[in-house]
Amino acid sequence: MTDNHDPRTDVAGLLLAAGGGRRLGGRPKALLTHRGRPLVEHAAGVLRAAGCRRVHVVLGARADEVRRRAALDGCVLVDNPDWAEGMGSSLRAGLASLAGTGARAALVGLVDQPGIGPAAVARVLGAYEDDGSLAAACYDGVRGHPVLFGAAHWADIAGTATGDRGARAYLRAHEDRIRLVECADVAEPYDIDTEADLSHLE
C-alpha cells in the first residue's frame, strides 16, 4: 500500500562509519581524506544530497576524533561501543537509534564507497513505498549498497546481524522480495579496503 507521504520524511539515512580499517593499518575509514575532508563527512553529505533529511551516523573507532574533525552538523551521531565485532553491531546500533523517530525505513550506506554518489542513492530512495519496503542498488545485476529496509524488517534484521555479515543473511532469505535498482550507469561500487584502494580517493 502506498500513501502520499513525502519519502524524504519517512526514510532516514543510516551511515555505517564505525570500522577500524584493519587492512589499512588501523586507520579508521571515517577519517580518510577525500576531497579535502574526512570521508565520513563526504558520505553523510551524499545521503543528504540524495534527499534524506534525517541522517544517523554510526561511529566506533576513534569516535571522539571523528566528532572533532568531521563537520556532521544536523546528523544524529550514534556510538557503537561494540564496533570491533564488525558491521553487524553497527547496523544493530543504527537501527536501534531510529526507533521512536517516526522513520518508516532506513537507507543504509557504507562510509567506504565514495564511488556511490547522490544519483544512485536517490534511485534507491525512490523505491520506498511503505514500511514493508525492501530495496537495494545493483550494479550490472549484482546486489550492493545502498540498501533500503522498511521498519517492518528492522527487528528481524537486528536479530540476524552478526560479525561482518550485516544484513546479508536476512537479504539472502528474502531475495524474492528485494526490489533491485540498477545503478551501474551512475555509480561505481568499489570499497576502500586496502592500501591499493586509496588511489580511488581524491
Largest sheet: 7 strands, mixed
> Please, what is the oligomeric state?
single chain
**How are helices and strands ordered from N to C?**
HEEEHEHEHEHEEHHE
**Radius of gyration, whole Å:** 15 Å
How would you characterize this protein structure?
The chain is of the alpha/beta class and 202 residues long. Helices cover 28% and strands 22% of the residues. It has seven helices and nine strands, in the order H-E-E-E-H-E-H-E-H-E-H-E-E-H-H-E. It has helices at residues 7-10, 39-50, 63-69, 87-98, 118-125, 154-160, 168-173, and strands at 11-17, 33-34, 37-38, 55-59, 76-79, 105-110, 134-139, 142-150, 179-182. Strands 5-4-1-6-8-7-9 form a seven-stranded mixed beta sheet, sandwiched between helices. A two-stranded antiparallel ribbon has the order 2-3. Strand 2 and strand 3 (37-38) form a beta hairpin. Helix 2 packs across helix 5 (118-125) and helix 4 (87-98) packs antiparallel against helix 6. It starts with 6 loop residues before the first helix and ends in a 20-residue tail after the last strand. 49% of the residues are buried.
